[in-house]
Amino acid sequence: MNNYGFVRCAVAVPQLKVADCAFNAEKIFELIQTADNENVSLLVFPELCITAYTCGDLFYQTRLRQEATAALQLLLEKTKEMNIVFVVGLPVFYKNALYNVAAVCRQGEVLGWVPKTHLPNNQEFYEKRWFASAAALTPDCPDEPVEYCAFDEQWEAPLCANQIFECSEFSFAVELCEDLWTPAPPSADHAMHGADIIVNLSASNELIGKHIYRKTLVEQQSARCNAGYLYASAGMGESTQDLVFSGAGLIAENGVTLAETERFSLENQLIISEIDVEKLRAERIKNSNFNNSVSNIKYERTTFFLSDEGNEPFTLHRAVNPHPFVPSKEKMAENCGEIFNIQTGGLIKRWQHTQAQTMIIGVSGGLDSTLALIVAVKAADKLGYDRRRVVGVTMPGFGTTSRTYNNATALMQSLGVTAMEISIKAACEQHFKDIGQNTEIHDVTYENSQARERTQILMDLANKMNGLVVGTGDLSELALGWATYNGDHISMYAVNTGVPKTLVRYLIDFAAATFDEKTARILRDIAATPVSPELLPTDHKGAMTQFTEDVVGPYELHDFFLYYFVRYGFTPEKILFLAKRAFVKSQEPRTKSQDIENQGLYTDEEIEKWLRVFLRRFFQQQFKRSCLPDGPKVGSINLSPRGDWRMPSDAAGWGI
């Protein structure tokens, strides 16, 4: 069964009674059984969950340790036939010391014992009263032997903090509670030595504000380590003599929380999601500094096997954001403002450096040219220049509609820029005569001649007016090669090359709120206008007849393909799998991405069709990207041949 690089993981918070190991084992097993039925590969429980964390001086009692051993033995017996790795916490006595240990278990065996390294011993915590640190056991160099613990003459396995457990699909390592809160968490070393996923068995009590801080720690550590992070903290069954525990459980991936438990629940808690190990490894490959600080600490590596029954198609619990470039509503204003700052900052620097008198922009009344015009106006305002130094040129052609023409002229007037109108019809008709082009044949020559005529006008005006031509093409068009070579493909500074099409409308809507109501109305209508190059003649009513997405496909699909193809290097098969998950009627659980209204819905056949188009065009059109003008990078994906994307123009393409 193809899991597309995903590993199904779970965090469990069982019901619990302090010092009642038999009861605790029963509740733990219930959750293991549920997780196994859900095809979970890796399951983590809270710290000292077999005994309870709050046993106090009962940890000194031989009876408690014996019952903990018996409970673990029972769990191992009951899970011999299960296809799951689970990690539970219990106290382990070894060589005259007691350790707070995570037992990594699989099919009736203990794969390894991982003791806690950093023991809290301040304020409400005093673990050093009972436990010894793993530091006394962990080898400092590769030549030192690793301790093996035969727990009560059973389950001989390595006993050290530096262990990595690995199978063909993923690898993971363990840290316990306070280990995460230290200045240098062990998980950083674990990750640099190859652990894709970190599991943390914790007993973190609740205080005002602590939950937010704890969640931030988990997210930040998962981001810092480019790792998945499974965090399971002690629940409501713990003693409330001095502290209250809520059962905080989190599943995070590279800085993003995928799932979390309901805190303060009196019932068993189990959260399930998938960690995208392929994506994490792609991040690490691109991070040239990831292994710079890797230590020479000896790591014990234990290999295990997960069976691949292949009975059912692989499905995801986690939702897939259909619009990965679009911020959530909560971050929309902040992110849009930052994008404008980046675009404006880039243009300001170029304006100052070239000492140009004017900025020349072809204004069509469409999305991209509107965004470029707004950026130029904001740059002029910030520099204290008269807005009339921004020159907007509308160039009506054979396909220009009254809607886009009127919006273009009204917007330039409303913004107070210098407005020019130069029709390209006569020039193109003369050009068609010169090259023998039949004006009734509306082929690519007919279309591209208009785009090149417009570019010639802008370039020559820039020469005449000591100006700089500001490009309008966006990131999505560059990915598809949806630009006329030596036409709108060329400019002197391209401010939109880092902005995907799905984001342009949001930027214009955001900008509308920063202008007067008259300008805002124009901007909102432009944002609602269908995407079209308007190169084919209008119908008898003057209406638009050419729609870009009818030809190249929906931009929201192409932006989705672009994101996962370039950002993570996913295979076409995996991108197709994710797209079929993303563009469905509903997803559970809901994510912030679903705040976006009017999410597109597509059949599997439509998604496959447009993915083929994307892949074909992305490879065939690289030659246009190889000679792009300068432009500012805005997000994590950019196609500049000088920076993020260096690809041969004649590379063989991949299909599905």
Please explain how this structure is put together.
This protein folds into two domains: 270 residues, Nitrilase/N-carbamoyl-D-aminoacid amidohydrolase (4-Layer Sandwich); 222 residues, HUPs (Rossmann fold), CATH 3.40.50. Helix 8 links the parallel strand 16 and strand 17. Helix content is 36%, strand content 17%. It is an alpha/beta fold. It is built from 19 helices and 20 strands. The longest helix is centred in the middle third of the chain and has 26 residues. About 2% of the residues have low confidence. The radius of gyration is 30 Å and the shape is elongated.
CA distance, first residue to last residue? 18 Å
CATH class division of the largest domain: Alpha Beta
What is the overall shape?
Answer: elongated
Task: Report the mean per-residue pLDDT as an integer.
Answer: 93
How many distinct folded domains? 2
CATH T-level fold name of the largest domain = Nitrilase/N-carbamoyl-D-aminoacid amidohydrolase
Specify Rg, calculated over alpha carbons: 30 Å
> How would you classify the helix and strand content by structural class?
alpha/beta
Main β-sheet description = 7 strands, mixed
